[in-house]
Amino acid sequence: MSVLRFDNVSKQYPGGHVALADVSFEVQPGEMLFVTGHSGAGKSTLLKLIHLSERPSRGAVLFGERNLRKVRRGRVPLHRREVGVVFQDHRLLTDRSVFDNVALPLILRGMRRNEIGKRVRSVLDKLGLATRERALPTQLSAGEQQRVGIARAIVAEPALLVADEPTGNLDPTLSAEIMALFASLPERGTSVLVASHDLGLVKRMKKRVLVLDHGQLADDIAPEDLADA
Amino acid sequence: MPEAVQSAPIQRRARPQGRIGTWLDHHLYSFVASLGRVARRPWSTALTVGVMAVALALPLGLWLVQANVARFSGDVQRSREISVFLKADIDAARAQALAQALRARADIGGVQLRTPAQGLAELRANGLGAAIDAVGADDNPLPSVLVVTPRGDEAMLAASLQALPEAELVQHDALWRQRLDGWLRFGLRVALVLGALLGLGALLVVGNTVRLDIQSRREEIGVLQHLGATDGFIRRPFLYLGLWYGLAAGALAIGLLTLAAVALDAPLSELAASYGSRFTLQGLDLPTAMAVVAGAALLGWLGAGLVTGHYLRQTRPTDT
User: Fold this and answer.
1) pTM of the predicted model, to two decimals?
2) Do residues A49 and A19 lie in contact, with contact meaning Cβ atoms separated by under 8 Å?
3) Distance (Å) from the alpha carbon of B298 to chain A's nearest alpha carbon
4) What is the pLDDT of residues B285-315, one digit of tens each?
5) Contact call for A111 and B16, based on CB within 8 A
């Protein structure tokens, strides 16, 4: 049973621009993979389809057993709670502490207060943010901010984590650090899909890579092949 | 909840508390968040509440004035008498004859003649003697007056009395009472129309303030939507915000009206006393005041709900 499956998915925007054409792939539980390609190749559209910010024009996106086409508008929030998202600009709420930011997904799920406290501290601890719990996001370094963003995305233990250019604003050392963090998630049961145009970084990670070109899936490279390249 | 969502692994692992517990928890969260928003922007809050309070106080004040005048007019004893002022050249003998003739009519219960001399005596009795002496009333200018008590239709009788060649002026109390009632009804209608218009204004004021608040929180709303917040979760703090604005504005409007009543009461009582009346202003009673505050809170809630709903419809991710 795959975590995510694209079946001949096409997306055409109202203006006529074809963002994705006949894309098919599958993501297995505990798998980490990259989606790469030049800007405008369709990476963002692909992520939007997973997150139900957009709907496919043709084809089907399956999340677990669920066909996302059948998720009605009122259920979109419930679907989104099961997909962790990390943004390039982390998008933390600047007027709330690190703790409150990370707690948000759990509050949305209606979890009990004491349990929220335990889970948030445990995640912050794992990401080396235990001492920054009370800090405001603006008081953190760029790397720390992105780590808080990741903490927020994984605190509810989603089946799938989606990251859009998560290292776009970070220097190479920090980028490697963040990527290592992502690479550690699959062993905890979370599949990870990272969109990035940083080819060097992608190659060093030695993971599966989907290459998009003008909306088409140009290549699906297995980690072994990448090691040879 | 569809089967697919319920069977998802996260829902089981995250172990949410009961539905009511979640609901209460979310309300508490929104409640605290909305109070924080009010506290962070004291000036804009004060402005909104002030404008709203004035918009509410105006029609309420008008309504109170109307209610007080209606009460006052109710105090005036309903008089059925019709006064017929005779022309100045009618002498006492002719007036007496006319009174006799009228007494014979079927639609008249009784006629009382008040001669000019009696009229003058009455004025003196009312304490105007000094004034009359001052103007030197050697030649009594007062006309004879026939005070007619009608039997049957007053309006028709008044009209027929006006047609008498001897009559200069017919004063019928029922007529001015009718007119006063007309004015009172008109006043009430004006208060209602103004109330509707300014109530709409109050709604728009809240709506606009909440809209500005939403604008400044676009980012946050976007993040919450991405994390899977329902429309209800996003709307709730804004609804509370509208509620606070409404409650505060309602209370302030009552306060303003009370101040106005206090300022007006003393001189008005003096004025009334000079007419021998013990009339005092009556303000809002407690149930009405509470209804006003509740109504204002409802207005605020509604304004916030309309604006937030509109924004959420606009930012809706997908249509189906």
Assistant:
1) 0.73
2) no
3) 26
4) 889 999 999 999 999 999 999 999 999 988 7
5) yes
